[in-house]
Design brief:
The chain is built from 14 helices and 16 strands. With about 425 residues, it is of the alpha/beta class. The strands form three sheets. Strands 3-5-2-1-8-10-11-9 form an eight-stranded mixed β-sheet, with helices on both faces. Strands 13-12-14-16-15 form a five-stranded antiparallel β-sheet. Strands 4-6-7 form a three-stranded mixed β-sheet. It binds aspartic acid.
Length: about 425
């Protein structure tokens, strides 16, 4: 059979009880050969994640505040897990090494990476697997960009030497200086994906604390339908609009290698979870894969008579945003008008400067700013082939008395984006969900 890579997130390695569940999962399928682990996460709502505590340690050290007690809280968590499981492993020598590096003034990335490092050492000893450090296997250039091909080569060469291994998530190192570099938060998902690509896995299992993706946010829709299959491209649309189960960058390595991702629940291993794949696996009578949304957005609308004849108008408008390093999301246009939809947090205290620069560079007749807009993405590979989707959405919103501020079908025809006023956000999602599901 093929190789399976299983990545376990923070809640799955939070304590001894969770690790016993992992043991069951791993032992029930010998194809699960490469295990990627996060640092221990929260055991209960108000608990701390080890990674957060490690960042705090470094901040305290930098401010000359004693951090020894805090570090003790961290090491106690690992020691307690080892004790509960009866694992024979010399954690003390690792703690001592970290202490020494910290007092010598180590980097923030080094200290943050120790969460996954200790976690992998412990889990490897518990499962009786090899520990394979990623420090010199996942490599970045001096600007911190992943060297994907070099990483793939190093990982596959090293992992070929180990039949069963536990691998720490979240970090690698700069190829030139060899110093540790962490990925962005939640980056163990990316490690799992890189490992899956390197060992040519049959599947990349991402074990977390939910049974896969849901068709809508359960805080808005009561008991939304689970998503059994979804394509990478749909997932990208949904996660961009706020549905998050997986680190954004985790998709690319496996997608490249055509390896499906299976989101699974460590606490309910019998649930099939969601399979994310390149194939068009949607079933024919399902138009919609999911609904997601974000708020607040700000819409800057620019009006100018004969705008459509003015060459370079859109370029100059967007150059203003580029100069201010502002990301925009959508640019709906009319004959003599152009709107730019921007996440409000992007604008923060830059709005006045942006408006002044737009005035200067475009000499428009009018500029209006609409704040507090919510954007909703209705996503599904079935949308392209189905007549009347937009009609169903607009009818559902009209029945609810919701005013549509914007409506746009994506060029790839797998999404319809709707802008509504932020207070109508939840009601709009419910109306659309009920119209389709
Ligand atoms: N431990 C890291 C974090 O909390 C990475 C991860 O868990 O994926 O962000």
């Amino acid at each position: 059979m093929g190789i399976k890579v299983a990545k376990f997130g923070g809640s799955s390695v939070a304590d001894g009880i969770q690790l016993r569940k992992i043991e069951q999962i791993i032992k029930s399928d010998p194809d699960r050969r490469y295990i990627v682990v996060s640092a221990p996460g929260k055991r209960f709502d108000k608990d701390n994640k080890i990674t957060d505590l490690l960042f705090m340690c470094k901040a305290q050290a930098d401010h000359n505040i004693p951090y020894e007690q805090l570090f003790q809280v961290i090491t106690d968590r690992y020691s307690a897990i080892a004790f509960t499981l009866g694992v024979q492993v010399d954690l003390e020598s690792h703690y001592e090494e970290i202490r020494q590096k910290m007092s010598a003034g180590c980097s923030e990335d080094y200290i943050a990476s120790r969460g996954e490092y200790l976690s992998a050492i412990l889990v490897a000893a518990f499962l009786g697997f090899d520990f394979v450090d990623t420090k010199d296997l996942i490599v970045f250039d001096h600007k911190g960009r992943l060297l994907a091909e070099e990483t793939n080569k190093r990982l596959s060469e090293e992992l070929a030497k180990h039949e069963y291994a536990v691998i720490p998530g979240f970090y690698g190192s700069y190829a030139d200086i060899g110093e540790i570099k962490v990925l962005s938060r939640g980056g163990s998902d990316v490690t799992g994906s890189l490992v899956a690509r390197a060992v040519k896995a049959e599947i990349y299992e991402n074990w977390t604390d939910v049974s896969g993706l849901l068709m809508a946010d359960p805080r808005i829709i009561k008991d939304p339908m689970p998503i059994e299959y979804i394509s990478y491209i749909e997932l990208r649309e949904l996660s961009y609009m706020g549905a998050s189960v997986l680190h954004e960058e985790a998709v690319f390595p496996v997608r490249l290698a055509n390896i499906p991702i299976n989101i699974r629940n460590t606490n309910a291993p019998e649930d099939p979870g969601t399979i994310i794949t390149t194939e068009n696996t949607y079933n024919n009578n399902k138009v919609l894969s999911g609904i997601a949304g974000k708020k607040p957005f700000t819409v800057i609308s620019i009006y100018k008579n004969m705008m459509n004849k003015e060459i370079g108008f859109v370029r100059r408008a967007l150059a203003v945003l580029e100069d201010q390093e502002i990301n925009f999301d959508h640019i709906p246009t009319g004959i003599d008008s152009l709107s730019v939809v921007i996440e409000s947090k992007e604008l923060e205290d830059k709005l006045d400067d942006v408006l002044a620069s737009l005035e200067q560079s475009l000499r428009p007749d009018e500029i209006t700013v609409t704040e507090d807009i919510a954007m909703i993405a209705v996503v599904g590979l079935g949308l392209a082939r189905t007549i009347g989707v937009a009609a169903r959405i607009t009818a559902a919103l009209a029945d609810e008395g919701i005013n549509i501020r914007m409506l746009n079908q994506g060029t790839n025809e797998i999404n319809v984006i709707i802008g509504v006023e932020a207070p109508d956000f939840e009601r709009a999602i419910r109306a659309i969900y009920n119209a389709f599901v």
